[in-house]
Amino acid sequence: MIYIFNYNSYRQEGGLRVDLTDKNPEAVKICKFMQGTDILVSADLEGYIHFWCVTATPHPKKNQLLCSVRDFSESDVGEKAFFPIRAMDFDIETGMLYTGDEMGYMNKWDISKLIEKLDDMKPKDFNDGLTEKQREVKQKAAFLTGLNENLKVQFSSDDVIQVHRWKAH
């Protein structure tokens, strides 16, 4: 479980959990905010990399899991194995995420499609002069009439592409 706190208001904004029905979720080993985006990336003991929407402004996907991918390695005996991700970094200019696992494998992931989809969903008229009640009515009307195109956007593991993989040592 990952807890999100707002240090301006000193309150908890929300909690991020992959599977709410799982009583024993895997421990999160590393988290990283992707600079210049509304994405938080976390990795757990099973080699899963989870992408979350985390933003201080209203967003249809705020505090939700966008997608997950699994980093797998080949063990010394030739079987597929999953190792915890221990390091990650993000290149804001290229939209590439770099990860490293316990067995010394490095991965380069292209997350530019994920970033683009999330940015396209950002409300364009956040400070539109409407009251909170008017904005709520407008959102409900858009939902009921199907005018809100953001509701049709789907995220999947196909939005994250493994570009390159290599053994670091």
Integer-rounded radius of gyration: 18 Å
CATH superfamily: YVTN repeat-like/Quinoprotein amine dehydrogenase
CATH class annotation: Mainly Beta
Total domain modules: 1
CATH architecture: 7 Propeller
Strand order of the largest sheet: 3-4-5-6
Number of strands: 12
How many angstroms separate the termini? 32 Å
Helix percent reads: 10-25%
List segments where confidence is low: pLDDT < 50 over at least 5 consecutive residues: 142-147
- Enumerate how many helices there are, as a single number: 2
Assembly context of the chains: single chain
Order of helices and strands: EEEEEEEEEEEHHE
The global form is: elongated
Structural classification: mainly beta
Predict the CATH topology.
Answer: Methylamine Dehydrogenase, Chain H
Q: Hey, roughly how much beta strand do the residues contain?
A: 35-45%
How would you summarize what this structure contains?
The protein is 14% helix and 39% strand.
Describe the structure.
The protein is built from two helices and twelve strands, in the order E-E-E-E-E-E-E-E-E-E-E-H-H-E. It is mostly beta strands and 169 residues long. The chain has a single domain (2-124, 152-167), classed as Methylamine Dehydrogenase, Chain H, CATH 2.130.10. A four-stranded antiparallel beta sheet has the order 3-4-5-6. Strands 9-10-11-12 form a four-stranded antiparallel beta sheet, with no helix packed on it. Strand 7 and strand 8 form a beta hairpin. The protein is elongated and about 60 Å long.
